[in-house]
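FIELD: query
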Amino acid sequence: MHTPDNGEREPVDASAGFEKTDVRVGGVTVFIVSMAIFVAVVAIVAWGLGKAMNAHMASVDPKLNKWSKTVDVRELGNMPSSTDLQNKMGELTRNFPSPSVQNDDGLQDVADLHAREDLLLDNYTWANADHTKVRIPIEQAMQLLAQRGLPVAPAVEHAKPMAGDGAPHVTAPQTNGFARTAYEQGQK
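FIELD: result
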């Protein structure tokens, strides 16, 4: 548009301070007005759809039962140390029967299990209901075992190995088979 067909360039008129052929103000105005109308129409349609969906959901929702009830807890006040009010608050907040969905990936359950195991391994406890057997701490049990040794089984006669058989090669494990989880290590 700036170059004539004969190959010569038109002289540029710089008196206005800008190039007059770049943008048409009418086109920009039509675009802005049409965009505003489009946004307004979409907002009205979205509002109408929202109202229609809410009305449909309200008509389909089941009636309130013992698991879904509306409770005004403002009547409880600031919860003085009354056990009746605390029990009432506990009943109001306990909506679902157990087991409930875990929200901590079960890491706290594993930590609790290891804590219970540590209590059994590090303390004296009764091993049966008759109180005739006692569990001793694992460290003391290892010391007693080191002092007394393991009972030795009687020797068993072995047949001669067959051709190609060799003595079995057994390697000791590198750990005792117990390791704390990363969650438990982060708590200490």
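FIELD: remark
The chain is about 45% helix and 0% strand.
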